[in-house]
Amino acid sequence: MPELLRLEEVSGGYNDQTMVHTVSLEVCVGEAVAAIGANGAGKTTLLRIIMGQINATSGRIWFEGRELLKLPMYERARMGIGYAPEGRALFADMTVEENLEIGAYRVGRDARQQRLQHVLTVFPKLDRLRHTRCRLLSGGEQQMVTVGRALMGAPRLLVLDEPSTGLAPKVVGELYAALKILNREGLAVFVVEQNAYAALRFAQRGYVFEDGRITRTASADSLLQDPHLVESYIGHLEQATPSAGTDYAN
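The chain above was modelled as a monomer; its predicted structure follows.
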């Protein structure tokens, strides 16, 4: 598969503190990739560098062969990168539909409505909540709105930062089942997660992050079978399973 996103020896951080050290990785067209690691490993910082919220101090980033590092955040989104940030960043007093439509403000009404209907098909729970203010939603419902808003931009790559944080296991299963549908439709997905089991059950490939560095990359199935990885990041699988009967693995 051709490369969609490529990072080459990217470093960066906050002020004088480097949080990401010479990271190289790629996401191919239509691929689902997970980056897993403990809290503070540098995963969120990496995504903020990719999206232009933080400047890289070294390295290069390409999206569909075009260099990103000198482009502002809005230009990266226009190129086809959808971003669902950690913490959701919704407009609490606006409705679900209003929050979603913000993700497609640059397109005409007909196209916006088509995209809205697609999001409501992917997340059918949001259809009955479309006129509800987002501050009244559960955490899982808010996360669906966050992902849906990113989808409204019709991205070719969806980037998600810790999407399962604070969610009940059943809701995590529902969220990743929806992401699996999107990936099967051809959308590339790059997700960073502490919830290694959920992310690796979803992805085809995985990167392990430790102290701002990639220490291992392999197929998701291989990482799930690694005893050291299970002990370090996954723990008891029966406790990590999103919900009984849920299967969104490949």
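The beta strands are 3-14, 17-28, 32-36, 56-63, 66-67, 81-84, 157-161, 188-193, 205-210, 213-219.
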